[in-house]
Specification:
By secondary structure, the protein is of the alpha/beta class. It folds into 2 domains: 2-194 and 301-331, 3-Layer(aba) Sandwich (Rossmann fold); 217-297, Orthogonal Bundle (Tyrosyl-Transfer RNA Synthetase), CATH 1.10.240.10. The chain is 54% helix and 8% strand. It has 15 helices and 5 strands. It has helices at 2-7, 23-36, 48-52, 59-76, 93-102, 107-111, 114-122, 131-134, 136-146, 159-175, 217-225, 246-254, 258-270, 275-298, 302-331; strands at 10-15, 41-46, 83-87, 149-154, 185-188. Helix 2 (23-36) links the parallel strand 1 and strand 2. The protein is elongated. The two termini are 43 Å apart. Bound molecules: adenosine-5'-triphosphate and magnesium ion. Adenosine-5'-triphosphate (ATP) binds at residues 15-16, 18, 24-25, 28-29, 154-155, 157-158, 192-194, 202-206. Residues 15-16, 18, 24-25, 28-29, 154-155, 157-158, 192-194, 202-206 line the site of adenosine-5'-triphosphate.
């Protein structure tokens, strides 16, 4: 019985089409999606409307990256037979839901959100915040609830956003005396936040400090060899630091032989292990991981992904229409009695 309930759970997750997907996505969320798709109803959304909230002046970038992100999905093993893949702007019901939810949260609560706060800082939006950007957590609440999703495989930056979504859900259900909306839980990957190759706290498309899954052999190698290690580790015999060392952060995330990695760390700390040897180990590890992904990606055409996304939108929209009808009914809005 318990098993049945769990398997009936809906999984939903999304990415902004602001660039190709990177290794942060892989360890934070994609790996979990590939696992979950076998036992749950899975929805994966390309959040183009959310991407416009901080790229409204560059719609071409958002439009072009829809197909790139979809190719990244397929190349890591997300299956369109198991998951519904779709584009956010093709589901207008999400935006009607957003408007209803907007009344259930205060501006100050949105401003207090640590993820949004950090992003505002990063984007220099601190003096003049676009209302749409501040409200993107509300739009995200609509995305989650429209599909009655209860499990969100995502990186740790999503935790404060899912908290807001759950607050809105509780407030909606209490205010309208209903239980049509469901709360969701975040499932954070093994590495909830992968650092940038420049040592910044988070690898991100917008900061251009990530290793993309589609990077060529040469670009990957060049990014690894430019990684920040320990500035005081000059000679091979010098003792080196592990903390803040980007190469070790990536080995921690991707090198499978943990016992050997511990030995390498001890040796590095004592002195006697050079940065070039470490980088070469990381290069071999990541080239082996990304080679099959790169090869699979090269076989996928734009037409194939567009067909998949259109079929996904048709399926997703039916569900969103149904939820919106339940939401309108719960609020007590005028029932539509004629077709128009
Ligand atoms: P942008 O810079 O445009 O915000 P992004 O690189 O942050 O792009 P998103 O599309 O915002 O990527 O995030 C999609 C998903 O990937 C989210 O679940 C997020 O938590 C996860 N994610 C993104 N970057 C990382 C990272 N460095 N480590 C772990 N998870 C990440
Ligand atoms: Mg982001």
């Amino acid at each position: 019985m318990l098993m049945e309930t769990i398997e009936n759970k809906v999984v939903l997750t999304a990415d902004r089409p602001t660039g190709h997907l990177h290794l942060g996505h892989y360890v934070g969320s994609l790996r979990n999606r590939v696992k979950l798709q076998d036992s749950y109803r899975c929805f994966i959304m390309i959040a183009d409307v959310q991407a416009l909230s901080d790229n409204f002046d560059n719609p071409e970038k958002v439009r072009a990256n829809i197909t790139e992100v979809a190719k990244d999905y397929l190349s890591v093993g997300i299956s369109p037979e198991k998951c519904t893949l779709f584009v956010q702007s093709l589901i207008p019901e999400l935006f009607e839901l957003t408007v209803y939810f907007m009344n259930l949260i205060s501006v100050s609560r949105l401003e207090r959100n640590p993820t949004v706060k950090a992003e505002l800082q990063q984007k220099s939006f601190t003096d003049s915040i676009p209302a749409g950007f501040l409200a993107y957590p509300v739009s995200q609440t609509a995305d989650i609830t429209a599909f009655k999703a209860q499990l969100i495989p995502a990186g740790e930056d999503q935790l404060p956003l899912i908290e807001i979504a759950n607050e809105i859900v509780r407030r909606f259900n209490r205010t309208y005396n209903t239980n049509v909306l469901l709360e969701a839980e975040t499932m954070v990957g093994k590495v909830g936040r992968l650092v940038g190759i420049d040592g910044k706290a988070k690898a991100s498309k917008s900061l251009n400090n990530a290793i993309f899954m589609s990077d060529s052999t040469e670009v990957l190698k060049q990014k690894i060899y430019s990684m920040y290690t320990d500035p005081n580790h000059v000679k091979v015999s010098d003792p080196g630091r592990i903390e803040g060392n980007v190469v070790f952060a990536y080995l921690d995330a991707f090198y499978e032989n943990k016992a050997e990695l511990e030995e390498l760390k001890l040796k590095y700390q004592k002195g006697g292990l050079g940065d070039t040897a470490l980088k070469s180990l990381l290069n071999n590890t990541l080239q082996a991981l990304l080679m099959p992904i790169r090869e699979k990606r090269a076989e996928i055409s734009d037409d194939t992904v567009i067909d998949i996304l259109m079929a996904g939108a048709a399926k997703a929209r039916k569900i969103a229409i149904q939820t919106l009808a339940e939401v309108r009914d719960a609020i007590g809005l005028l029932k539509r009695t004629t077709d128009f």
